[in-house]
Amino acid sequence: MPRMADLPHKGGGYAGAAGAVMLALSLAVAAGCNTGDKDGPVDVIFDRDACARCSMIISDRHFVAEVRGGPRREVAKFDDIGCAITWLDAQPFASDPTTRIWVARLDDGSWVDARASRFAGGKTSPMGYGFAAVIDTEGVDFQAVQQHVRAMAQRRNK
């Protein structure tokens, strides 16, 4: 086995190749840590990511929600719009106009702005809040969902 002193240092020998591998690994790790878009929603890894409020694993694509806010513009993921609203109500940045909330549409799972969405009630959602984002003009607006979720939270806390 060669000793370290016997390995070539220049010109791409063993040490040069090892350095190149280390550089490539460092760049790959840095790219993997990149948070990407600081304004939009991020991918949810279903059956792996956990709800920021209740810690339940997020597995139902029809009810997932995300909130982006705070000084570092971080994203929190939720299994139910009710969890997102309850969690956000407890955050110091809840009323900050730059705080964003997205929900997955019931029909195709695409992200939509929760505040501009309509919601169908009576759904079987993961935490029982019962709302799903829909494209219909029927259904209730986000403010009505907030009121319902807050009333449920008060009843649950009694």
Description:
By secondary structure, this protein is α+β, with helices and mostly antiparallel strands. It has three helices and seven strands; from the N terminus they run H-E-E-H-E-E-E-E-E-H. The chain is globular and about 35 Å long. Helix content is 28%, strand content 16%. Mean pLDDT is 82; it is low at 1-36. The strands form two sheets. A four-stranded antiparallel beta sheet has the order 2-1-3-4. The protein folds into two domains: 1-34; 65-157, no CATH class. Strand 3 and strand 4 form a beta hairpin. The protein starts with 13 loop residues before the first helix and ends with a helix.
What descriptors fit this protein?
three-stranded antiparallel sheet; 158 residues; alpha+beta; 2 domains; four-stranded antiparallel sheet; disordered N terminus; globular; 16% strand
Distance between the termini: 72 Å
Secondary structure class reads alpha+beta
Give the % helix: 25-40%
Give the biggest sheet: 4 strands, antiparallel
